C-alpha cells in the first residue's frame, strides 16, 4: 500500500502540538517494520526539516507556503488531488484538521480538538471561517477520523452527529530521548535572571490564546506570593502575555524578579528549563490532548494541573488537580505542592509510571491499523 501523508501545514522551528504530533508519528512509523511505502507531501519551507528520505519514505515538495493559510487551504482542496493521482496514492492521511474533499482514494484525517469552535472568537475571521467549513467537510467525507483523546471523541460526536465507529482514539506521546538531551544545548542563551536564580522556581507555558488561561495563572501566583513562606519564582516559557489587556492584573506587579518570561526557546532549552523547576503548572481549561503534561512527566517534573477537558484522562493519578476557573483553588494547589517535598517526589514517580501508557511506536502501530482497516472496508 502506498500511503500519502499531508504535511503541508508544517512550519520549520514551530513546536506546537500538531507539529510535534507529525514528527512523533513519522519517527514511530520509521521504527516499525512495514511493507507499505509513504509519500510525504510537504511545503517549500519545511522540505529540509522533515526526516530524510529512504526506501520507505519519499518527500514531494509542493509549491505552497505554509504560513499563508488561505493559499494552503486552496492548494489542498484544488491542487493536492493532482499529486495524489500522480504518485498513485492508495490512502491519504491529513495530519491536521483539514483534508482534500474530492479524492477517489480513501482518506484519514487527524482532528486535534475543536478549539476553533469553542474559542473561535479568539481567531482571525477568515481562519475561523475556513476551519469551520473544511473541518466539517473533512468529518463528513473522510473514511476515518483520528482523535487524541476520548474527550475529543465525545466532543466531535456531539458536534457532528456521526457514527462513533468512524472515530479512532490514538494518544500522542513524548520523545524521552529528546528530553534527556536537553541539557546538552549550550548554544542558546536565556534570560540571565533565570540562570542566576538562587530561589526555587516553578514553570508554565505561555500562549496568547485564551484557553491557555495565563491571566488566571498570574493572579493565582500573585495570590500565593502573599504568603512569605512561598519562595518560588514563576518562569513562563514563551513570549510575554499582554497582561496590560487584563483589568484584574496590575501589570506593574509583574515587572519584577518574581516572574521571568523566557521568550522563544529551542525544544532542547525548553526541557532544560523544565528540568530545573520544582514543578509545572498547566492551567489550560481546554485541550484536545495536552502534550506539555507528558513533557513535564518525562522531564521528571511534578505537575499541578487543570481538571477539565482531556487533562484528567491524560494525566491520570500523576498530578494535583485544580479548577482552572477558580483563582483561589489554583493558588492553594500551587502553594500546597510548593511546600510538600514528599508530595512532589510521589508525583514525579507517578509521572514516570503514567508515561508507560504512551509511546510514538504505539501511536504509529495504532495509526497503521487504522490505515489497514480503512482499506479493507473501502
Question: Descriptors for this entry?
Answer:
16 helices, seven-stranded parallel sheet, single chain, three-stranded parallel sheet, alpha/beta, globular, Rossmann fold, 378 residues, 41% helix, 13 strands, 2 domains
List the helices and strands and how they pair.
Blueprint: E1 2-7, H1 17-31, E2 37-42, E3 57-61, H2 69-78, H3 80-86, E4 91-94, E5 107-110, H4 115-118, H5 125-141, E6 144-147, H6 150-160, E7 167-169, H7 176-180, H8 192-195, E8 201-205, H9 214-224, E9 233-237, H10 251-254, E10 259-261, H11 267-275, E11 280-282, H12 291-298, E12 303-306, H13 311-315, E13 320-322, H14 327-338, H15 341-355, H16 360-376
Parallel strand pairs: 1-2, 1-4, 2-3, 4-5, 5-6, 6-7, 8-9, 9-10, 11-12, 12-13
Helix pairs in contact: 1-16, 9-14, 12-15
Question: Could you characterize the architecture of this molecule?
Answer:
The protein has 378 residues and is α/β, with parallel strands linked by helices. It has two domains: 2-173 and 359-376, 3-Layer(aba) Sandwich (Rossmann fold), CATH 3.40.50; 176-355, Rossmann fold (3-Layer(aba) Sandwich). It is 41% helix and 15% strand. The protein is built from 16 helices and 13 strands. It has helices spanning 17-31, 69-78, 80-86, 115-118, 125-141, 150-160, 176-180, 192-195, 214-224, 251-254, 267-275, 291-298, 311-315, 327-338, 341-355, 360-376; strands at residues 2-7, 37-42, 57-61, 91-94, 107-110, 144-147, 167-169, 201-205, 233-237, 259-261, 280-282, 303-306, 320-322. The strands form three sheets. A seven-stranded parallel sheet has the order 3-2-1-4-5-6-7, sandwiched between helices. α6 links the parallel β6 and β7. α1 crosses α16 (360-376). The longest helix is centred in the middle third of the chain and has 17 residues, at 125-141. It is globular and about 65 Å long. The two termini are 14 Å apart. The model is unreliable at 181-190 (pLDDT under 50).
Amino acid at each position: 500500500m502506498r500511503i500519502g501523508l499531508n504535511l503541508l501545514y508544517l512550519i520549520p522551528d514551530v513546536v506546537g502540538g500538531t507539529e510535534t504530533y507529525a514528527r512523533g508519528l513519522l519517527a514511530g512509523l520509521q521504527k516499525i517494520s512495514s511493507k507499505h511505502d509513504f509519500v510525504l507531501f510537504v511545503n517549500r519551507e519545511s522540505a529540509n526539516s522533515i526526516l530524510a528520505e529512504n526506501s520507505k519514505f519519499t518527500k514531494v515538495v509542493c509549491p505552497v507556503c505554509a504560513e499563508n493559510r488561505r493559499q494552503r487551504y486552496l492548494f489542498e482542496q484544488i491542487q493536492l488531488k493532482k499529486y495524489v493521482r500522480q504518485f498513485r496514492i492508495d490512502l491519504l492521511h491529513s495530519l491536521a484538521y483539514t483534508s482534500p474533499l474530492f479524492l477517489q482514494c480513501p482518506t484519514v484525517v487527524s482532528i486535534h480538538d475543536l478549539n476553533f469552535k469553542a474559542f473561535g472568537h479568539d481567531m482571525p475571521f477568515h481562519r475561523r471561517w475556513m476551519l469551520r467549513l473544511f473541518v466539517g467537510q473533512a468529518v463528513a467525507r473522510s473514511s476515518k477520523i483520528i482523535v487524541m483523546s476520548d474527550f475529543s471523541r465525545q466532543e466531535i460526536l456531539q458536534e457532528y452527529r456521526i457514527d462513533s465507529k468512524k472515530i479512532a482514539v490514538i494518544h500522542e506521546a513524548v520523545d524521552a530521548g529528546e528530553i534527556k538531551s536537553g541539557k546538552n544545548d549550550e548554544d542558546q542563551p536565556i534570560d540571565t535572571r533565570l540562570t542566576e536564580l538562587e530561589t526555587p522556581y516553578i514553570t508554565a507555558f505561555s500562549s496568547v490564546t485564551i484557553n491557555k488561561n495565563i491571566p488566571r495563572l498570574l493572579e493565582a501566583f500573585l495570590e500565593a506570593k502573599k504568603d512569605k513562606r512561598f519562595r518560588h519564582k514563576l518562569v513562563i516559557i514563551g513570549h510575554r502575555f499582554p497582561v496590560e489587556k487584563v483589568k484584574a492584573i496590575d501589570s506593574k506587579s509583574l515587572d519584577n524578579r518574581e516572574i521571568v518570561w523566557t521568550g522563544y526557546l529551542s525544544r532542547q532549552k525548553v526541557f532544560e528549563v523544565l528540568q530545573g523547576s520544582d514543578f509545572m503548572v498547566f492551567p489550560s481549561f481546554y485541550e484536545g490532548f495536552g502534550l506539555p503534561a507528558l513533557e513535564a512527566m518525562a522531564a521528571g517534573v511534578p505537575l499541578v494541573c487543570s481538571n477539565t477537558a482531556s487533562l484528567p484522562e491524560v494525566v491520570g493519578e500523576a498530578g494535583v488537580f485544580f479548577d482552572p476557573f477558580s483563582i483561589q483553588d489554583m493558588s492553594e494547589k500551587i502553594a500546597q505542592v510548593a511546600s510538600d517535598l514528599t508530595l512532589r517526589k510521589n508525583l514525579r514517580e507517578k509521572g514516570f509510571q503514567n508515561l508507560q501508557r504512551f509511546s510514538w511506536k504505539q501511536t504509529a502501530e495504532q495509526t497503521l491499523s487504522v490505515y489497514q482497516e480503512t482499506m479493507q472496508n473501502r
